[in-house]
Write a structure and sequence with these properties.
Elements lengths: L14 H9 L2 E2 L13 E5 L19 E2 L2 E7 L5 E6 L6 E2 L2 E2 L17 E2 L3 E4 L5 E5 L21 E6 L5 E5 L5 E4 L1 H7 L7 E3 L37 E6 L13 E5 L5 E5 L5 E5 L25 E4 L4 E6 L4 E6 L19 E4 L23 E5 L15 E6 L4 E6 L5 E5 L18 E6 L5 E5 L5 E8 L6
Parallel strand pairs: 3-8
Antiparallel strand pairs: 1-2, 2-29, 4-5, 5-9, 6-7, 9-10, 11-12, 12-13, 13-14, 15-16, 16-17, 17-18, 19-20, 20-21, 21-22, 23-24, 24-25, 25-26, 27-28, 28-29
Length: 473
């Protein structure tokens, strides 16, 4: 199975267009042998986003923002793209240099010539202009909690923008999910305050809380999960908000949380932050043969994403087990003493490392082991509308950080149509346009453009433009 790469030109051809073509990794999908159809095509936009702001500090010198690891990515109703960043944070020392001073050194350079950390939340318009940056980046700098975020979730992770326009953020090194109004937050800047918080900072749902005086964050980990609390979380990875009336809560705005790195469950709260129910528990090991409805025991992120489809179903990334499990919303039942970790059988499982091929109906591995179902979105899709999204949602975009590829999968059949980006079907981590280095999350805007955020060694977000998308929605 092979992916061809080609060049295409659209619109007025000028210097920028020529540069775009030369720098672009274009992706051509595989032909569907059974129907002779092709999936959509995409091209990376190497000019998105545009250079970040360079505010002038008290020293009179302009210091360019640096985002660090881009952990979460989400889109609002105006197609503005928000990122939740594990940037160089105030109070963190790198190479002996304290980060976040007005001088801003982040790599040991002379402060008068260096960049400064960006705010934790950075927002871009569809053209790539930075339109906002806010959030409290400070770290607790004294006592047993040294090095942990003082206000926002520690270990920046997933984000989601709901039907009211509010943004939700989760942290995989903490026990909280927070909701912000992005308009008031942008005005407040570093003093932005959350609208609502689920969970308690530094207090995770664990079987053995830390002893008095110990660092409370040490209890937030995957080997100490209780998986039962109606008020606490344990390293939540992702969040999604349902604009529909919940089948169990009976109210609009249920909050689905992939709880996630410490616990092994999807847990649901109503719009007031009150517990509705949950499902899922850890498998005994990490394997594609783990029972349906369970999540990988270790390996980071189990479940790692939660996405609401316009079919009324809940799509969940079981990252260590390389699969997407699909559930009904009615799976969310309260945990009890008699049923502390309720399970629910998925209506479907999509295996990421055992794709059906486009030319054969059998299940066949197309790459070596190591694929990981890290994050997903539908294509095309309007995320905040969830079940009300008018798009066809014919395909699934899946970020596979194990192979540093982003797959396009036909939703109905599970057939892989190909891999996004210049690397094509073979993994080739790198920093050129269209390559991926630790691809982590993805989001899709209303125009059919795909955004892929990279953490660890990637530290950026890339935009892939849909070609002839207007004929495929």
């Amino acid at each position: 199975m092979k992916i061809k790469r080609y060049m295409a030109m659209a619109g007025t051809v000028g210097a920028a267009a020529i540069a775009f073509i030369l720098a672009t990794g274009l992706w051509q999908p595989l032909a569907k042998a059974d129907r002779g159809e092709r999936g959509p095509s995409f091209a990376v936009d190497p000019f998105w986003p545009k250079p970040l702001p360079a505010p002038t500090g008290k020293d009179g010198v302009a210091h360019t923002w640096v985002t660090g690891e881009v952990a979460g990515s989400c889109v609002d109703k105006s197609d503005n793209v928000y990122t939740f960043n594990r940037g160089w944070e105030v109070g963190l020392t790198v190479g002996g240099v304290l980060q976040g001073n007005e001088g801003g050194a982040i790599n040991g350079q002379d402060a008068s010539a260096s960049a400064i950390p960006s705010p934790p939340i950075v927002a871009y318009d569809s053209d790539g202009n930075t339109i906002a940056g806010w959030g409290n980046p400070s770290l607790i700098q004294t006592g047993a909690d040294y090095g942990f975020a003082a206000y926002m979730p520690h270990g920046a992770h997933g984000c989601f923008i709901d039907y009211r326009g509010n943004i939700w953020v989760a942290g995989n090194g903490d026990g909280i999910v927070q909701e912000y109004n992005p308009h008031t937050a942008a005005v407040a800047g570093a003093n932005a305050q959350f609208v609502m918080q689920i969970g308690t900072k530094g207090n995770c749902d664990t079987t053995t809380p830390p002893p008095a005086g110990a660092n409370p964050f040490t209890s937030c980990n995957e080997t100490n999960d209780a998986n039962t609390s109606h008020t606490l979380l344990n390293e939540p990875a992702d969040v999604a908000v349902d604009p529909d009336r919940g089948p169990i809560s009976g109210t609009r705005g249920d909050i689905y949380i992939a709880d996630g790195y410490g616990n092994h469950r999807i847990v649901v709260f109503n719009a007031k932050g009150q517990y509705v129910g949950q499902w899922g528990k850890a498998c005994a090991t990490d394997s594609e043969d783990c029972p349906k409805g369970t999540f990988g025991a270790t390996g980071g992120g189990h479940p790692h994403c939660v996405v609401l489809g316009n079919d009324g179903l809940v799509y969940v990334c079981d990252r260590p087990n390389n699969r997407i499990q699909v559930f009904k919303k009615t799976c969310a039942v309260p945990s009890t003493t008699a049923n502390p970790q309720p399970l629910c059988q998925p209506v479907r499982v999509i295996d990421i490392n055992r794709f059906p091929t486009a030319t054969k109906g059998d299940r066949k591995a197309i790459l070596l082991a190591g694929t990981r179902a890290c994050d997903m979105d539908f294509w095309p899709n309007i995320d905040y509308l969830a079940s009300k999204s008018p798009t066809s949602q014919k395909n699934i975009i899946d970020v596979d950080l194990g192979n540093d590829n982003t797959w396009l999968i036909e939703k109905s059949s599970g057939i892989v149509l190909g891999a996004l980006g210049a690397c094509g079907i073979a993994p080739c981590p790198g920093h050129n346009a269209g390559h991926f280095a630790f691809g982590h999350t993805t989001t899709v805007d209303s125009e059919g453009n795909i955004y892929v955020a990279e953490t660890v060694t990637g530290r950026r977000i890339q935009k892939f433009v849909a070609i002839d998308h207007h004929r495929r929605f």
